[in-house]
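A quick aside before the break. I want you to see a complete sequence-to-structure record at least once, exactly as it would be stored in a machine-readable document. Don't worry about memorizing anything.
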Amino acid sequence: MIGEAEARTLATTAFTNAGVPAAEAAQVADALVDTSLRGIDTHGLRLLPQYLDELGTGVARATASPAVLRDRGAGLLLDADGSLGVLAGLTAARLAAERARQFGVAAVGVRNSNHFGAASVYTRKLARQGLVGVAITSAASRTAPYGGVEPLFGTNPISVAAGTDDEEFALDMATSQVCFGEVKHRRSEGRPLDSGWVTDRLGQATRDPDDAYALSPLGGYKGQGLAMAVTVLGAVLTGSAPDWQLSQVGDGIAGRSRGIGHLVLALDPGAFAGEEQFAVGLADLLKTVRTARPSGVGAVLAPGDPQLHHERARRNHGIPLDARTADVLAELAGCPDAGGRTDVASVTASGVEASA
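That is the input. The structure line, written in tokens, reads:
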């Protein structure tokens, strides 16, 4: 486990040591810590070692200079210059917010980028500014088309967010049944997969994590359609490579960006129903869903509710870490004896604890 404040400090130090300017290092650290606080561990601090590896090999450029290639007012195309994807996404969100205030709606396409973590980082940032945020990203292929064998599409997430605090709608979903990180997690624990998650090399459903060859699309052909829509918007529209031509995180070519494409949209409610009416309507939508009659013991939840629960708990009790990330942070905290641990370990001098 690690406390929130220490996690932010150590992660910022890690990126600064890797050559990222201090202000930008803090932004990436905040994005990863915020994601871990919300319980999205696969896209939080667990990505820190992988991002550091990509900085070390030049897949991601520590001092990149993103530039706008095309500017049509409400529509822009940004070349990320091989930067860390988080910084590219944050730049896109900033530009989208500025232009949405001017035009009512704005879309920023990004090319020549890298993995940008959780899509909700950018949509929630826009939502906290009173806007409606939408974000998608292409990703290296993990998911087979419905009825197919070979993986063609990434998990290709879609995120939409609006509102803040208890009146927040925060959808962040993959277009596959599950992310591949969960498959690897089950494999390491020797646990079977849930039915319908993956297929083997013959395209047949399997629950054996060792036989997993491709992820299955969410909802069959509907999930395939959503994955293809993300590819159209995140890759084709931005002039980026399709999913099946992208390398996985950690498998990029040294000195070359992974060439991932993103799309970030911002909508200003003031240009539509109006800010006040939108806020009332959003609150009514969330209340209606949350007070719906449940079929079981638990209450009906809106998108983002489980993450809000995780955030409140982890702010009080700390963020659990996998062994590799704990080693990186413990070394930064001055505890090199933690290196190489793969079991449950506690580094009491620094407050960094690895969780199995």
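Two observations worth writing down. Confidence is low (pLDDT under 50) at residues 336-350. The first helix runs from residue 4 to 17. We'll return to this after the break.
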